[in-house]
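Work package 3, deliverable 3.1, input record:
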Amino acid sequence: MNTKNKGGKGDILLEMRDIVIDGFSDDRWHPIIKGIDLTLRRGEIMGLIGESGAGKSTLGLASMGFARPGCKITRGSIVFDGKDLMKASEAEKRELRGSRIAYVAQSAAASFNPAHKLLEQTIEAAVRHGISTEQEARADARKLFAELQLPDPNNIGDRYPHQVSGGQLQRVMTAMAMSSRPDLIIFDEPTTALDVTTQVEVLASMRQIVEHFHTAAIYITHDLAVVAQMADVIKVLRYGETVENADTRTMLSHPEKEYTKSLWSVRSIEKAEEESEDIILKTEGVDAGYGGGIKVLDNVSIEVPRGHTVAVVGESGSGKSTAARVITGLLPQSKGQVLFNGKALPPALKDRSTEQLKKIQMIYQSADTAMNPRHTVRDIIGRPLEFYLGLKGKALDKRLLELLELIELDETFVDRLPAEMSGGQKQRVCIARALAAEPDLIICDEVTSALDQIVQKGILSLLLRLQKELGITYIFITHDIATVKAISDQIVVMYQGGVVEQGMKSEILAPPYPDYTQLLLSSVPEMDPDWLTGLLKERNQG
Amino acid sequence: MSVGEEGYSAAGEVSLIKARRTFRANVWRGLKSAPPTALFGLTVISIYLIFAIFAPWLAPYGEAEIFPMSYAPWGDEFLFGTDQLGRDVLSRLIYGARNTIGIAVATTFLAFLIGGCLGIAAAISQNWLDHLLSRSVDVLMAIPSLIFALMLLSIFGSTATNLIIIIAILDSTRVFRITRAVSLNVVVMDYVESAKLRGEGLGWIMRKEILPNIMPPLVAEFGLRFCFVFLTIAALSFLGVGIQPPTADWGSMVRETAGLIQFAEYDITAAMTPMLPAAAIALLTVAVNFVVDWFLHKTSGLKD
């Protein structure tokens, strides 16, 4: 099964030389890819890794001789199996795409036509390109479904895209790409939108099928641990240039460049846990649900010690964010109570006093939607200062600058709009907005999951520093165990609306585990190329 | 294995800083890239506005000034002749721009004030208020608006104020619908939730959080609504229940001189007289539509 380090055995399948791609924005053409070389052999899996905006996807698409609208390939050569794609006509390229080169997109849900059954969409490319007849293609698709470990492979193709889960849809998409037995598959962040527990299954089935058919693949991701499981060689990109190029094991054990090392530096933050008896917030037997009597939270009791961090972990749908909505008052609970500083908080938002609202602040996952795109940083941070503290004029400006300094930004940011900042800077401004209210408790809802590793590290160390300086309490909702290790004192594990366990970090992260905690912890990819193989072996035996 | 702390600074992170342009620079850039139809529309609208604002200085005679000669032919003294009472048609055309456009603009503003506020409020609340408002709007829209307006005007009397209020209320139903629809996309954003969590009142959320984000479709709708209001007023005036004499207005001018059209075989210029206010109405409607089209095209992102 192990295909690692076999690069060099196959012939060269794809060769890209000195690729330059320009993108159009702000009335000008800017280079997005600045002269990258890429060589891929038959049966080899290459991981393309880098932050958002590094040009990974653009380069991935270029290997099909394709540039997105607003981009153009201005220089270089792309030779696929002896054919120069730069000189090929559109018709020739169309002949290759879908039959010899296939593409698996990040969001499977957006890539399927909701009006057609899965099987019809899976076989479309193979039938269109005349590779097989419809009958053959159907039988073959069922075989692929089985190989990808989809449940009920003979009938799942008769369902519509909305009738299967996200992880299953991503696997159907892989089957679709595989149906014409291409020589090269491009995976563009195929598991980024999935839960860790689902991600493991999808990764395993993808790897198995790619190995089985000896297909070459380009695997694009920003998660180094994921790519370590899939790829034979890894290429690190930044600002449209190659940073480093090496086979997986060398890259993991001996990265050469500082930047490559920084990609997994978030795993280097480690917080020493502290115990505390002083409870700031406590939920007692809380039930809550959305209209129609669907119960999302079932008897949730959580204790949050003052000045410390409680991490709430669990997969999506486990009720983590709903618990946060109950605490903030956005969703009044149907049973139980929330005690803040020993006093019960009114369930509904409108019954809470300004003072109570001020003490609990929230930071969101996506800074893009958490800030009004038409407000400047001054409006965003200044409003809580004005609203809660009644600051005006010079006093407000002074406090605004202090806050900006606290989040390591300077006065040049005061008049910027959200669109004029990077992802990390935006999240910092959201943190400053929460701090402006001078709260006791901040609820952080997946605040780092949309960010690149190096930026994540910056945000996490900022949050830790603020806690030390200001004594703020955090409830940190996340599904990323590395983040949990970095920031928490206590951990709450949630599953299907209930609390599986709560305890100190060292207790939860040490055996013996309840079944669900075990599954969750073991599903987090590790920086070890043999991790997935080992895990699967272990699970099969167990 | 950690990156040097000194090598990383949050403020130094590369971000997409677009050159911020001043409002004037933006307008200039927009105008330079505007298609000829939009430029034509803008020119026509500016000419109308000049006539409307400077009517007393531009018109050769007074709005209600009566001369002894009724139905005077086109000529040097009266460029477009006089009407049935002996009033100068050219002067009334110029004053008509002021009255008709003024009332139409006021009506459209009022319609947007009512429909816009209620639409945003309905989108935010999404409870009984939303249901109540939406169903009431459905009921109002089920009745043909011109006939409804005719009925209400005969009940309450055709003063300019009544005209403005009645048409504004009837037209605010359309504004309500579009405002509610576009606001629904904005109220689900985290920043609106964040404002609610802060304890902000309904007024703040409506004005500061939602309104700036739904402006482009509303501005486009304003242009279109203006056309419809303008045509409704002209139609009502033509029917005799709109703007009342002696105030000059294009709709009633068409009605008053409509009879002249049958003299086309004897005097072509006389037959043209009722055509002038009609053409003025048509031209403005077309011009506004051109500009709105361009604006919608620009803001909706349908650039290719």
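Chain B touches chain A at residues 1-4, 7-11, 13-20, 189-191, 193-194, 196-200, 208-209, 212-213, 304 (CB under 8 Å).
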